[in-house]
Design goal:
- The longest helix is centred in the N-terminal third of the chain and has 20 residues, at 20-39.
- This protein has one domain: Ribosomal protein L17 (50s Ribosomal Protein L17, Chain: A), CATH 3.90.1030.
- It is elongated and about 45 Å long.
- With 98 residues, it is an alpha+beta fold.
- The protein is 57% helix and 20% strand.
- The chain has a three-stranded antiparallel beta sheet with strand order 1-3-2.
Length: 98
């Protein structure tokens, strides 16, 4: 559920700041969502709707994000390391769309 929420937030906001481990974990999941969006058929839309938590995220995925990456073959996200968190020293990263 945590990963689903993070991918939904990434689709809605464009970038999120989280720990490096979580960013690396959601990278292939976000890329898979873009691949579903590029397919564009009803089955792909239903798969994305079943996995994402917000219907607005599904609309944004299919209407805005997937057409942007139509010519790209992969690597839709990037992880930028930001340093460590002051409270517990966990490595923090920013994951965003390319």
């Amino acid at each position: 559920m945590l990963l689903r929420n993070l991918v939904t937030s990434l689709i809605l906001n464009g970038r999120i700041r989280t720990t490096e481990a979580k960013a690396k974990a959601i990278k292939p999941l976000a890329d898979r969502m873009i691949t579903l969006g590029k397919q564009g058929d009803l089955a792909a839309r239903r798969q994305a709707a079943a996995w994402l938590l917000d219907p607005k995220a599904v609309q944004k995925l299919f209407n805005e994000l997937a057409p942007r990456y139509q010519d790209r073959r992969g690597g839709y996200t990037r992880v930028v390391r930001l340093g460590v968190r002051s409270g517990d020293g966990a490595p923090v990263a920013l994951i965003e769309w390319m």
